[in-house]
Amino acid sequence: MDERAISPVIGVALVVVITLLLATMFAAGAIHLADFGSEREDVHDLTDGPVDGDADATAGDESHAGELVRAVDDGAGATTTHVVNYTVAADSDTAGNSLNSVTVEYESGSVDVSGVDERAAVTLVGIDGDRDGTVETDATGDVECCPPGDGVIVSDGGNTLRIEFSGSYSLEAGDALAVRYESVTNPSAGEYGVSVTVNGEVNDGGGSVQIR
């Protein structure tokens, strides 16, 4: 009789353990989603002042604040400069580590970065530590070099740009990273998807570039 009475107790214990495990998994997933959301909010807090001028320029026109990637000349078919505004999330694996790579992936068949094929086309890599619109650290010279292969790599038929760095500069939580590169060819008018990856972490796959 006593031995048969043990089974219900074990069953209850197992149910409790399984419930706790499921609750823990759900909580972890919720935290991850919340962190992703906060990173998106950080991006929308950016100003784009420094990326249109020199590395030490102050904030100017804020009409493009919050755009992950934008075209300086957004005209259809224009050959122009594109600008990335990326914010390092507080819980990101990138925070506290060196800047090693930035990858900008445009929607297939849209923006063409084939012209961005050398270091000289990357005109600014700046870190704005307090997001006040002023670049405090100019990391442009840290783009990898030299032949036979440098740190500027175009792939996916011209729709993806990867910039690799020597790792001499670190990124901290909340830093705004501005990357500016020229010789980009805009597609026809429309809205095109784009994602930015820093050190292997996707910032926001839901970004877009407006071409008029």
Automatic annotation (TrEMBL):
TM regions (residue ranges): 6-31
Archaeal Type IV pilin N-terminal domain residues: 4-35
Keyword Endoplasmic reticulum recorded: no
A matching Pfam family: Pilin_N
Region (Disordered): 44-63
Keywords carried by this UniProt record: Membrane, Transmembrane, Transmembrane helix
The protein's name in its UniProt record: Archaeal Type IV pilin N-terminal domain-containing protein
Organism: Halorubrum persicum
